[in-house]
Structure of Probable isocitrate/isopropylmalate dehydrogenase:
Amino acid sequence: NKTHNYRIASIPADGIGPEVVSAAIEVVEKLAQTMKTFKIEFTHIPWGTDYYKKHGRYVDENVLDVLRGYDASLFGSVGAPDVPDHVSLWGLLLAIRGPLQLYANVRPVRTFPGTQSPLRSAKASDIDWLLYAGHGGRSHVGQPWETATEVAIFTRIGIERIMRFAFTAAAARPRKLLTVVTKSNSLRHGLVLWDEIAVEVSKDFPTVKWDKMLVDAMTIRMVQNPSSLDVIVGTNLHMDILSDLAAALAGSIGVAPSSNLDPTRRNPSLFEPVHGSAFDITGKGVANPVATFWSAAEMLGWLGEEDAKELLMKAVEGVCEAGILTKDLGGAAMTKDVTKAVCEEIERLH
Ligand code: NAI
Ligand code: MG
C-alpha cells in the first residue's frame, strides 16, 4: 500500500483566483499532513492576464506538454476589467480544455448545512457539455451590412461520449435519474441529433430513469420542483446558464465547484470554481473559498483519494454549520477565517 505523491499545477490567474486558490492549497496541505495517507505538491504556474500583458499570450506555447507533467490542475479564474472576456477566456481556459479533451464539465450543486437556499434544497447535480467548437466569423467590419455568424457544431462522437458519461453518472447515483436538456423544437438539426443519440445511448442503461426537457421549461422546473432533478446533461451554452441558476438556487455561486474531466484519463483533468474573477470583491479578503475547497475535494476524489475528499467535505460542512460564513452566504467571516476554521475542523474530525 504505497503512499501516492501527487504533483498539481496551480494556476490561480486573475481577480479573486489567487485568493481562493491559495486558501485551497493551505487546506489540502493540511489534509495531507493530518492524514499522512498521501503526499501532494503544488507548482505555481503564472498564466493569466499579467502574463498576457508581458508575453502577449495567456499561456506558455507548449501548454499541453507543461500540463501533462502534472496529475491535475487547480485553476482559479480568468478575466480582467481591461481585456475583452472572449480574449481572456479563449486565451487561457479554452486553450486548455479543448486540446486536453476535457470534454465533461461536471458541476455538482447542493445546499450546505447552516446556509440557505432561496428555495428548498436543490439537490441537482449537473453535467455540462463542452461545445466551444467555435465556428463562425465576421465580415464587412464597421459597415452597416457587417455580418457575424456563430455556428454550433454537433458531432455524433461528441454527443455520444457526453451522453454515455451522463448516463453512467446517473446509474451510479442512488436515485438514478437523468434529465436531458434540449431545444429541439426550434434548433431542428443539431439538437434533434442530440435527442436521437440520447435515445440510442439510453438503451444501454436500463436502470436509469430519464426524461427530456426544453431548456426554457427547465428553468421553471429548477425553481418549482428542484427535488425532481438528479443528474442533468445539456450543451455547453445551455448548461452554462442553467448551472449559474442552480448555484444561485443552492445558496451562492461562491460554493459551486466544477471538474473539467478527460474521462479516458489520457490527459490530466482541471478543477476550478464555477465563479469568475469577481472584480467587485478582489483584494478585499472576503471571497468565499468554499467553491475552490470543493473543487479541490473533487480533484482528490478523481485522483483516487476518496477518504481525503470525504474528510475535506465533512470539514467544510462543519464550518458552515457553525456559522463561519462569508458575506455572500450572509456571514461576516473573511476568506482567511473560513480557511483557518476548515483546517482546524480537519484536525478535529481526523
Ligand atoms: P463572477 O463570478 O466573477 O461574479 C459574479 C458575482 O458573484 C459578483 O458579484 C461576485 O462578487 C460574486 N462572486 C463570485 N465569486 C464569489 C466568491 N467566491 N465569493 C463571494 N462572491 C463571489 O462573474 P462576472 O462578474 O460575470 O465575471 C467577472 C469576470 O470573470 C469576467 O471577466 C468573466 O469573463 C470572468 N469569468 C471567468 C470564469 C472562469 O474563469 N471560469 C467564469 C465566469 C466569469
Ligand atoms: Mg458561467
Summary: Residues 121-133 have pLDDT under 50 and may be disordered. The chain has two domains: 1-110+253-350, 117-250.
